[in-house]
Design goal:
The chain has five helices and two strands; from the N terminus they run H-H-E-E-H-H-H. By secondary structure, the protein is an all-alpha fold. The protein has one domain. It has a two-stranded antiparallel ribbon.
Amino acid sequence: MERITAINTHNQSDRRIKYVKMLLLFGITAWCAGFLLPAFFPEIIGNNIFYQFLKLCYSKVCHQSKAASFYINDGYMLLCARCSGIYLGAFLVLIPLSFKKSLFQLSLKPLIIFSIPMILDAIAIRSGIYTYSKFNAFVTGILFGSIIIIYIFEVLINYFSGTRLAYE
């Protein structure tokens, strides 16, 4: 009887993990699709209620400065270049991560290493060492987004599987 209970608990845990993976992938896909919409459907740009709603949603996570945003198809993106990079980096890494079966043994080193370029870029811009570059901001955002999603993913998976991993 104990063996059957253990198998059922394991199956429930696997199902929860699968749902968490799907929900995370769906969420980041919808989020990226939302801020990319103006690039592919410029007709939504303007005063219509849908565009204003999207702009309001993204204003909660980004300053949306036009000077820092990409201009595509007669309209500015709903996120600045750095935020666009962060979310696209997260999306690109989350796709293969969603099909991964085993857990990582995470260390804080990769997080620190991948965060340093973005931090240095922001400091250099603020201190006047060089001027803002959308390309640099986008690339450093991709680096940061690609690593931070791994940590978010693993924390969620560990939580829902009941596994507790310590970070070094």
